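=== RUN LOG ===
request id: a7f3
mode: sequence -> structure
chains: 1
length: 188
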Amino acid sequence: MTQKKRMIVGISGATGIIYGIRILEVLRRHNIETHLVVSKAAEMTLHYETDLSIKELRQLADINYGIQDVGAAISSGSFHTMGMVIAPCSIKTMSAIANGITDNLLTRAAEVVMKDRRRLVLLLRETPLTAGHLRNMLTLTESGGIVAPPVPAFYTRPKTLDDIVDHTVGRALDLFGIDTGEFPRWGE
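=== RESULT ===
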């Protein structure tokens, strides 16, 4: 029996919530089941950066979990997924994951993904970076996580903000072996 592909999508409170929204939209088009967990700070960011309600955001996912639901399916390694992407990822969330602080479902699910050697990708949104940030990024990377800041690529000559977002989302999903086909690639 072939199991449907599943991806955990986390959204934390950093600016750039459009990345998480677009990932949910793209994964739906690619028939990948999404399991969404949203931090309280992300709910605030959603209000500042979009016209979507939290209900509308949650409707983009197949399954939703509350941030404090640490007994949810995604908190267990026996629940098979392709991995997890956190988009955007705040420094607070990245630092908690790097240091094994699992006081909510977002950080617990990320730790489970890493301990089971599944793919964890963080679209880290912060600049400039302190030495502490860099140490935590190194710790996370040494533990198997991937820090992938959403840095725009201008060689594609983007014409709209959507072009930039689509490229970043496409590159992030490439890390899971998902070719969105929705952005131009260098040399192709």
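=== NOTES ===
Residues 6-126+139-150+161-174 form a domain with the Rossmann fold fold (CATH 3.40.50.1950).
The first helix runs from residue 17 to 29.
=== END ===
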